Amino acid sequence: MFYFDRLNDKRGLLSYISMNKSLKIEIPQALNAIKLKEYQKYLSIVEQNKDAESPELVNLKALEIFCGLTLKEAYGLKVTDFNFILDHLNNLFEQKTPLVQRFRLKGTDDVEVEFGFMPKLEDITAGEFIDLDSYLGDWKNMHKAMAILYRPVVFEKRGRYLIEEYEGSDKYAHIMEDMPVDVAIGAMVFFYRLGNELSRHMIASLEKELKNPQITPLKRALEENGVGTTRFTQSLREMRQSLTKLQNLGLPNF
C-alpha cells in the first residue's frame, strides 16, 4: 500500500510512496493539476485503443501520463494500489467544471501571465468565430481553440477587464497546451450549452414565423427554393433534438 506524503508541489500533486518498493508516485490532487496536453495525449491513446477488448493498456497509459510512472512501474503495482489511483483519477474527471474567467500561466521564460476569457462574446469577430468553429469540437486542436477564447489581460478596472486583440490562434496555442485541463473543459461545456440555448430560441422563432398565416420572408424564400414548410419544420425539430444532447466531451472512463 501507499502512505500519503503531505508535501505537495506547486502543481498540486499528492505524493504517494510505496511502503514495499519505495516508489514515489505523484498523483494530481485536483483537475487543475493536469495539463491540457496531458489530457490530449491520453485521449489519443483512448482513440488508438477504442476497439481493444481490454482497457488495461489504456489504464496503464493513464498512470504513465498523469502520474509520471513508466509502464514497467505501473505493471509492478499491487492491484489494490493500481485501482486506488485509477479511482482517484476517475473521481477528478467526474467533478463539475464551471467556466473559469481568468487564470495564470507561467511560460518557459518563468514569466507569469494572466489570461482572460472573452469578456464580450457578442463582440466576437468573424475571424475569431471561424477559427473557433474549426477547432472547438476537436480535442486534438483544443489548445488552438483555447488560444482564441483566452488571451492575456491588458487592462483591468473594478473587476472588469480587456484582453489582447486577436492575432490568430497560433500566437498562444503552444502556451495553451500547458493550461489546466479543467479550464478547457469548463469553456467547452459553457460554449455547447450556450450554443444549445441560442439554437433553441432561434428554432422557436423560426417555427413561429412559419405558423404565421401571412406570407413571411422565410416562407417566400422556402417557396422560391422549392422547399415545403412541413419538411423545413421537421428539419428544425430534428436539429433541436440533436442540439439538446451535450456533445461527448471525451471524458475518460477508467
Give the uncertain stretches in residue-range form.
1-10, 242-253
Main sheet: strands, sense, barrel: 4 strands, antiparallel
Structural class: alpha+beta
Using only CA atoms, what is the Rg?
Answer: 23 Å
> Secondary-structure element sequence?
EEEHHHHEEHHEEHHHH
The total count of strands amounts to 7
- Output the number of helix runs: 10
Strand order of the largest sheet: 4-5-6-7
Question: What distance separates the N and C termini?
Answer: 20 Å
What quaternary form is this?
Answer: single chain
What form results from the Cα inertia axes? Answer: globular
**Approximate strand percentage:** 5-15%
Mean pLDDT: 77
Question: Your description of this structure?
Answer:
The structure is a single chain. This protein is of the alpha+beta class. The protein contains 10 helices and 7 strands. It has helices at 36-48, 56-67, 71-75, 79-93, 126-135, 142-149, 170-176, 181-211, 217-224, 229-243; strands spanning 2-5, 13-18, 24-28, 102-106, 112-117, 150-157, 160-163. The protein has a 4-stranded antiparallel beta sheet with strand order 4-5-6-7. It has a 3-stranded antiparallel beta sheet with strand order 1-2-3, covered by helices on one side. β1 and β2 (13-18) form a beta hairpin. α8 (181-211) runs antiparallel to α10. The radius of gyration is 23 Å and the shape is globular. Mean pLDDT is 77; it is low at 1-10 and 242-253.
